[in-house]
Design goal:
This protein has 7 helices and 3 strands. The chain is mostly helical.
């Protein structure tokens, strides 16, 4: 297959024959694929008036189960952002009536973020469409290929997630 990454590898192989550029075949394609996938995922989020990070916050709260709440620091960990970035996301979600913030009942200094009824209804609709979109995106692979890719990516990612 002669794609963008193949052309880049050929140029580097010509200019720097002393280097093995094979890793670009995997890394370059994963990087390009991640960009395409992110854009396709964000199309669904935007349909619901959400940015990617806001979808992530609502999804993390919904996954918590009743009463659908978590501490802001926990949300920041789940969504891998700084607490400052989390505050901005929560400000917008609260302004839109999708979450509430209150003092923790167990820690007087702590805060708790909870889904509102409107937030839960929105994330349930958005997540349903999100999963349909992910199924559509994976349809390019056979079920066996998808399983094999998931296994490889899980193993590789485990080296970075510990």
């Amino acid at each position: 297959m002669n794609d963008h990454v193949t052309r880049i590898q050929a140029e580097w192989a010509r200019e720097r024959p002393d280097l093995d550029v094979r890793p670009q075949g995997v890394i370059g394609r994963l990087h390009r694929l991640a960009g395409h996938l992110t854009e396709q995922l964000c199309v669904v989020y935007r349909r619901f008036g959400l940015a990617e990070g806001e979808f992530d916050v609502l999804a993390a709260l919904r996954r918590a189960g009743p009463p659908f709440e978590r501490a802001p620091g926990e949300l920041a960990q789940f969504t891998m952002v700084t607490t400052g970035a989390m505050t901005k996301r929560l400000d917008r979600l609260e302004r839109d009536g999708l979450v509430t913030r209150r003092r923790s009942g167990t820690d007087g200094r702590g805060r708790v973020v909870a889904l509102t009824t409107a937030g839960r209804e929105l994330i349930d609709r958005a997540f349903t469409e999100h999963m349909a979109n992910e199924h559509r995106l994976l349809a390019e692979l056979t079920p066996e290929e998808a399983t094999q890719l998931e296994t490889l990516l899980t193993r590789w990612l485990s080296h970075y997630d510990h």
